[in-house]
């Protein structure tokens, strides 16, 4: 019972009432008094003791073993205990791995190589690890472990390492993972903070999302992924068909279907091969010169997607929203200048020999031929937009991504994804629904079902081949909603923390 020394003191009186009304605080004070007065029983251990890998009974060594034996009491919740066990060559059950941040790790009392003697008075001697795992699975509430300390493991100092995954991983579908419950579920683009690489095949990591840390779990290491899955190559999508190189939207322009690739002299842009993870570092725009009022340089926004999905419509809307802030590179052409056109504004008018030389030297992001004239977008034209402190907006074919993804460009790649066939049917495309109730789409309404199916299939093939390079996805099932998402992405790129490949950082 609590007594106030000076009842006239209102503060102490209020504090006393508050404490006495809290059963948790009273319980804590009660336990403190019991421990301080040593009013508790010593833990009772079995007559069975342990030495040199063999169990035996010897009353003379009881005191010694009680001093070396440790008793750890944990309360089991829905959270896994965060430890794995295995059998050693002597038949003992030992702690094989401790997951960082788990219940066992937080206790600070269970360590790798500790020998498990008992769990809730059930002896571990003679049991297989699987039997003890089943036993633990059926227990709830307080768990009492009796362990003999094993040989201490000195953990090497781990440098801070962040990885961005390039593939999807579900531990419950992986037969090779030692403990599925300890596995980490992640998708392409997820950022993982590696906290332990003690096991060469299975690293421990935390999944980051909006600065929230999820549970520490195991993920396949680079070695494991490469050995089991890393040899899978993305399907080829054929030769590069160049974009429609236009500067004025209302001017005559080569149609994309009429452009032909210059195969004899064009550099090969194959779908890239992907390591399973990409080492990344934090990038804050205002701390790295991006968005700084003195030297604003912005990451290019790259829109990729199947032909006809609406990339150019979204690009035009973005530029129209702020022409001074968003820009496109001026294309090159080998054709003659027409009346009213300005060199360096509508096109860079150059000779065919100049363009062919640039193509051979890989100076063009993409290029094509139309009616005997070459058209192309040069890398220098992209750099000019960036150096003019504008957001460069590009709509290349995906084969150009391997050229764009570099330290100098730092592009942000957005996949403009067509709706599924079921969604298109629901929207009433082709036009069997009144225009007033149709969603706003950039997909032509007079397309046949086969053409729509081809559009969706091309999108799926593109994502399968290049999806590991995409930073974001926008389903263009409504052009207004898609444009709103694109504006949000643009704001994010200029203001918020991002994760970029470490090799891109200065």
Quick recap:
Helix content is 25%, strand content 23%.
β-sheet strand percentage: 15-25%
Named at the architecture level, the CATH assignment of the domain at 281-327 and 389-504 is 3-Layer(aba) Sandwich
Rg over CA atoms: 33 Å
The strands making up the biggest β-sheet line up spatially as: 12-11-10-9-13-23
Number of helices: 13
* Biggest beta sheet attributes: 6 strands, antiparallel
Give the averaged pLDDT, no decimals: 77
Q: What is the CATH third-level topology name of the domain at 281-327 and 389-504?
A: Rossmann fold
Helical residues, percent: 25-40%
What is the number of E strands? 23
What's the end-to-end separation, in Å? 64 Å
Global morphology: elongated
Uncertain spans: 47-60, 210-216, 225-244, 260-270, 431-439
Structural class: alpha+beta
CATH superfamily of the domain at 281-327 and 389-504: P-loop containing nucleotide triphosphate hydrolases
Q: What's the CATH C level of the domain at 281-327 and 389-504?
A: Alpha Beta
Give a written overview of the molecule.
The strands form six sheets. This protein has a six-stranded antiparallel β-sheet with strand order 12-11-10-9-13-23. A five-stranded parallel β-sheet has the order 15-20-14-21-22, sandwiched between helices. The protein starts with 9 loop residues before the first helix and ends in a 5-residue tail after the last strand. The chain is elongated. Helix 7 packs across helix 13. Among the domains are: about 30 residues, no CATH class; about 80 residues, Roll (Pdz3 Domain), CATH 2.30.42.10; about 70 residues, SH3 type barrels (Roll), CATH 2.30.30.40; about 160 residues, Rossmann fold (3-Layer(aba) Sandwich). The protein contains 13 helices and 23 strands. It is an alpha+beta fold and about 500 residues long. The longest helix has 18 residues.
